[in-house]
Hints:
- 42% of the residues lie in helices and 18% in strands.
- The protein is α/β, with parallel strands linked by helices.
- The chain has two domains: 6-145 and 330-348, ATPase, nucleotide binding domain (Nucleotidyltransferase, domain 5, 2-Layer Sandwich), CATH 3.30.420.40; 152-326, Nucleotidyltransferase, domain 5 (2-Layer Sandwich).
- The strands form two sheets. Strands 5-4-1-2-3-6 form a six-stranded mixed β-sheet, sandwiched between helices.
- It binds 5'-O-[(R)-(carboxyoxy)(hydroxy)phosphoryl]adenosine.
- 5'-O-[(R)-(carboxyoxy)(hydroxy)phosphoryl]adenosine (KG4) binds at residues 14, 158-160, 185, 188-189, 200-203, 205-206, 300-302, 304-305, 332-333.
Amino acid sequence: MEQATIILAIESSCDDTSAAVLRDGLLLSQVTASQKVHEEFGGVVPELASRAHQQNIVPVVDTALSRAGVRKEQLSAVAFTRGPGLLGSLLVGTSFAKGLALSLGIPLIDVNHLQGHIMAHFVEPAPSMVEAGMIRGLTRADLPLRHPSYPFLCLLVSGGNSQIVLVRSAADMQIIGQTIDDAAGEAFDKCAKVLGLPYPGGPWIDKLAREGDADKYPFAKPNIAGYDYSFSGLKTSFLYTLRDLLRAHGVETVDELAERVPNLREDLCASLQRTVIEVLMKKLRKAAKDLNINEVAVAGGVSANSALREAFADYGRRYHAAVYVPPFSFTTDNAAMIAQAAWEKYRRGEFCAIDEVPFAKTTI
Ligand code: KG4
């Protein structure tokens, strides 16, 4: 009988330490330790992130292996996120993966974090994981999952990226549009910070927007050529709206303003969220139309946003397109997506030399 291919994948590009085990393309386990230490600073502190990865990586990997029922000696390869991300954070995962692969005498596979987000669409969780409630939002009836067919367009939206990627295959991805300044998630996080919401602000915007009026505050929409995005003007527009409201009510803080303006935060969040989503979907539609592609997917942390997920469903109905929204567990940074991308590379025989180093900035 042919031996199974078992891959251990490690993701440590930002503030989540995650490990996953994949056997012959089936996800057996995923364990993620999120770092709470950054909350009080209103953003990720790189030095603290790398220290927390150091503390988390051994227990996270051990738990992922034991939940998968796999011993280290059974592994066929070790995969890791090579970049883009915070260099200190990447170094922890990279060094750990190298050490483990060397000690076991097995190949090392480097994965581009952005390609990983896109490959999240091909992760197939083991039924036992789903039955154990380990994949948020999925039940046994959802299996096997629907996966996109090539070629498809993927809207990749995270804290650091907003891109439209033409995905011809797992090995052939081309960025056809991207933000020229801030990412969508960054715009959410920064506007949330101004409102005094905790970090990361994206999920708070999502939550408050449900109670808000999206027509209340019209914000400036960027007018950028082609399939590129820009969110810095929107951020400024948000800031000026708030500044004008503060002046008009003669108060200095958002808390004071919220006492005078009913539903202030909710309406601002709803209006901001609506604008960001309209901008994202408009360019995606333009690209899909121009390239005559009827399969569209969304990936990255912002794909957890409930209104963006609804916008995708609506896109599918309106344009008779096949749309793909990843399970919540594979939206923000996770090792399952790294394992999936590594499995594709393993089958292509693409391995990484032991002296390769991580990159803070890479593109697809
Ligand atoms: O992909 P990710 O985990 O990390 C990066 O590689 O950047 O994305 C994190 C981003 C943050 O900006 C966060 O605020 C945003 O995803 N995010 C959301 C939601 N959940 C996470 N944004 C809007 N709505 C959400 N529900």
